[in-house]
Design a protein that fits this description.
The chain is mainly β. Among the domains are: 12-97, 2,3-Dihydroxybiphenyl 1,2-Dioxygenase, domain 1; 132-245, Jelly Rolls (Sandwich), CATH 2.60.120. It is built from three helices and 31 strands. The strands form seven sheets. It has a seven-stranded antiparallel beta sheet. Strand 27 (320-322) and strand 28 (326-328) form a beta hairpin. The longest helix has 8 residues, at 20-27.
Amino acid sequence: MVAPASNIRGGEVVVPCTDLDAALALLGPLGFRLESIFPADEPAVAVTAGHGVRLRLERGAAAPAPIVRLACREPAAVAGGAREVALPGGARIEIVHEETGFALPPLAPSYAVSRAGAADAWHAGRAGMQYRDLIPDRQGGRFIASHIRVPDGGPVPDYVHYHVIRFQMIYCHRGWVRVVYEGQGEPFVMEPGDCVLQPPRIRHRVLECSPGLEVIEVSSPARHETRADHEVTLPCPPRVVEPARPARDYDGQRFLRHRAAAAGWEPAAHDGWLARDLGIGAATRGLMAARVLRPAAAGARLEGQHGGELLLGCVLGGAATLDGEHRLAEADAFTVPAGRPFELAEATADLEWLLVTVL
């Protein structure tokens, strides 16, 4: 008996078509080659193939008209510069760039508090991970901040992938995780307090983690693509030496690995507070910044406001009161719109909180 996987020899997309000749004339210049057509005396079906896709054109087929997307290095050089070719019968061929960019929605700032204890806060995400929104309204889709956890430790069912994004940072809150990035040497372990900036399109993979791993991820835009890369192997195979590219530019950003154990605390701009800068500002050329703050003594108070796109605070430990009414504990988060004053007071001595700003 043939195993199911090897028994499947190919697949086709059924395309309803009202005029086979006209459709074939349109598909030929797009690189689709006729493979079969029948019956000879009155053709009703034509199979054409190209770019790894087989299209089965059928006159009178009771199937929805599909959209076939062709990813091109130079879309303007295809189909006379048209971005769409319509086939008789309703099917459409979209001509897009192979690295289609993200859509950045208009900013919709909000004042919001996200509580860690909400029973329905968690949902299943990619590769066996669980997600909780730290910005429930996502500021109109411009930002997403997620509290991510992996209850069970061990190997993570991840694959080499990259993100089509404006920016993305990962902060390790609890446990440890072993990761690998292209051009950054051997896999390494992130521990509590460590952080990475994943610049746009850098290939990477999560390998394994401790039970109860928790990380905080901040990205823009909220809706962005995660793309698998089946041509890249990470970690590199034995005896394959990957060129080191620690300072490679990715859309104006560079990869950053911040190690908490090697970082120091400095007096913050706010009196009575200490800060550990994560280096995000330099790695993004000022697009965003991130630091961890803690009070120099219990009861510290901080007043401030900002003039940028986003101010996100997330409590890492301890407690404090926001604007006199929101008592914040570990994993609670808040956002404050530009120009709106806020106050953080009644801080416990063990308070630490992550402050992320987008300028």
